[in-house]
Design a protein that fits this description.
This protein is mainly alpha-helical. It has a domain of 108 residues. It has ten helices and two strands. β1 and β2 form a beta hairpin. Its cofactor is heme.
């Protein structure tokens, strides 16, 4: 007796899908509420166990031997509102002192991870070490400067050429001496404006004077 080969039909769910979608269980308010609570709980757990905030989730901050300390901030915005109050450098210094993270501190600005240091030796190492020579290029810098400006060009032959041109034509002693009279005039004007504001108001706001001098 010849029996046909039995095949396993794996597409049976396609025929039952319309009936399932038409049922009330899928759109039941309790099911939707349960799924929503589960998603919120997962997001809060990721935020709670991520030193540095939401941008450092999934263990990104724990790649080294010791995780970089820092504030968690808000679940979505991170420490954005903390830095928006007052002067940014004072807020960063206060945060580093509070979290005992003067050498390195991790925090989040929205979805962007940030690392700062308040220690002079660590800052010197970051600025002079070849491991930190390259920096990530933002889309704004790529669009405005075509990744060719000396401040955003990748470390290599092209950047060395830009540095050589700047040293020869922009910062050469003869070029600097040629503009000395203009610098002295700007400095004298700024000091005069500072003295006038001090005599009128009893206090001086340096920012506008520095911006005018620049």
């Amino acid at each position: 007796m010849d029996f046909g080969i039995a095949t396993k039909d794996s597409s049976w769910w396609v025929f039952t899908l319309p009936a399932f979608l038409g049922s009330k269980t899928l759109v039941d308010e309790y099911v939707v509420l349960t799924v929503l609570i589960a998603l919120i709980s997962i997001a809060l757990l990721k935020w709670a166990f991520s030193p540095g905030g939401v941008a450092w989730k999934n263990g990104r901050n724990s790649n080294g031997a010791v995780a970089i300390p820092g504030p968690r901030g808000l679940p979505i915005f991170g420490s954005l509102f903390t830095l928006s109050r007052g002067l940014a450098h004072r807020s960063l210094a206060s945060m580093a002192l509070h979290y005992n993270s003067k050498q390195l501190m991790a925090f989040s600005l929205g979805s962007t991870p940030v690392v700062v240091t308040s220690d002079p030796q660590v800052a010197k190492e970051i600025l002079t070490s070849p491991h930190f020579a390259d920096r990530p290029i933002k889309q704004s810098a790529r669009s405005l400067m075509f990744s060719r400006a000396i401040g955003f060009a990748p470390n290599g032959t092209y950047w060395l050429l830009l540095r050589r041109i700047a040293a020869s034509h922009l910062f050469a002693p003869r070029r600097i001496a040629a503009h000395e009279q203009g610098r002295q005039l700007d400095c004298a004007t700024m000091l005069k404006n500072l003295a006038n504001e001090q005599s009128l108001n009893g206090a001086v706001s340096l920012r506008k004077h520095l911006q005018a001098a620049a």
